[in-house]
Amino acid sequence: MAPFTKLCVALSILSLLACCTNAQLVNNFYATTCPSLETTVRNTMTSAIKNESRIGASILRLFFHDCFVNGCDGSILLDDTATFTGEKNAAPNRNSARGFEVIDAIKTSVEASCNATVSCADILALAARDGVFLLGGPSWIVPLGRRDARTASQTAANNQIPSPFSDLSTLTSMFSAKGLTANDLTVLSGAHTIGQGECRLFRTRIYNETNIDPNFATLRKTTCPLSGGDTNLAPLDTLTPTTFDNNYYKDLVAKKGLFHSDQVLFNNGSQDSLVTSYSTNSATFLNDFAAAMIKLSRISPLTGTNGEIRKNCRLVN
Ligand code: HEM
């Protein structure tokens, strides 16, 4: 073989190796190995949301909490065992993260048609997208090919998922640590257009803060007393809590953000103008949200030969 041909062969082998240990996510990853995947996810999500509309919100939040802790690797789905401590009981998730049974149901259906092929991390990414879409939000193409973690980190979940008591600078730096900008923070926080939050997490806001509409504070106090009622729920979006729209931003402009971390996005700071623009331009918000979800979904995936395809999303194989 001529030296040049030899070089070309060597380079192709090298690039092949690089491809398969450090592969990229791709849109058509399961096109031949599991063509029914997206329909299966969509059907299960449709019946889950028919049963309880909040579940779409809960699964969207699960995906965010998965991606913020060592990447979108399905780590949040692992159960604690006698010898394994996972992320489910980290402070931001304990008695709060929900929707695991729906992911189990999707996984069972997917396994029935495509045995040991599709990762739990990819199922969660698709289910989150479908929840948004089925509640009236945008759709997007989910890049696929994630593999599942064999480990989880409760410490990382405690330290890397933002708190509802955080200020804008903390939120911005926590998002920046994941490769996301302050604008990504603002548009992804628009996920709070759906779902519910507990009294214990917004009590100080409604009793102590000044950047709040007084009628809104009074209304929330009726079901969130100064003491007790910690787990009583309130909608994150006062106007349309089960529809994915831009009303969250209208709330912020009206000083009706439920959490401190919501209202800091509109509190005479750097994000005010973007919040105002989303509050009046629904199409821009929905479009930017879809793009930011794709960005979120690309955080540090395990690909190629890293990780595994879990058989049961709750357990390492
Ligand atoms: C920016 C920082 C964020 C903070 C501090 C935050 C905090 C919270 C808190 C405290 C709750 C209520 C939990 C409970 O009461 O049990 C919540 C709910 C929720 N969060 Fe966030 N979140 C943030 C960003 C996001 C992002 C980026 C997404 C998704 C893209 C998201 C999606 C949701 C959804 C959909 C719910 C409602 C869940 C349900 O009803 O079960 N959040 N968030």
From TrEMBL:
Function description: Removal of H(2)O(2), oxidation of toxic reductants, biosynthesis and degradation of lignin, suberization, auxin catabolism, response to environmental stresses such as wounding, pathogen attack and oxidative stress. These functions might be dependent on each isozyme/isoform in each plant tissue.
Enzyme class, spelled out: oxidoreductase
Any coiled-coil regions, as ranges: none
Any one Pfam family match given in the protein's UniProt record, by short name: peroxidase
Essential cofactor(s): Ca(2+); heme b
Binding site for Ca(2+) 1: 66, 69, 71, 73, 75, 87
Binding positions (substrate): 162
GO terms of molecular function: heme binding; lactoperoxidase activity; metal ion binding
Positions of the catalytic residues: 65 (proton acceptor)
Keywords attached to this entry: Calcium, Disulfide bond, Glycoprotein, Heme, Hydrogen peroxide, Iron, Metal-binding, Oxidoreductase, Peroxidase, Secreted, Signal
Name the UniProt record assigns to this protein: Peroxidase
Covalent S-S links between cysteines: 34-114, 67-72, 120-313, 199-224
Binding-site positions, Ca(2+) 2: 193, 237, 240, 245
Note describing how the cofactor binds: Binds 2 calcium ions per subunit.
Taxonomic superkingdom: Eukaryota
Site (Transition state stabilizer): 61
Residues noted as binding heme b in the record, renumbered to the chain: 192
Catalyzed chemical reaction(s): 2 a phenolic donor + H2O2 = 2 a phenolic radical donor + 2 H2O
InterPro entries the UniProt entry points to: Haem_peroxidase, Haem_peroxidase_sf, Peroxidase_pln, Peroxidases_AS, Peroxidases_heam-ligand_BS, Secretory_peroxidase
PROSITE patterns assigned to the protein according to its UniProt record, in alphabetical order: PEROXIDASE_1, PEROXIDASE_2, PEROXIDASE_4, PROKAR_LIPOPROTEIN
Protein family according to the UniProt entry: Belongs to the peroxidase family. Ascorbate peroxidase subfamily. Belongs to the peroxidase family. Classical plant (class III) peroxidase subfamily.
GO biological process, one term: response to oxidative stress
Residue span(s) of domain Plant heme peroxidase family profile: 24-317
Primary location group: secreted
Span of the signal peptide: 1-23
SUPFAM superfamilies, per database record: Heme-dependent peroxidases (SSF48113)
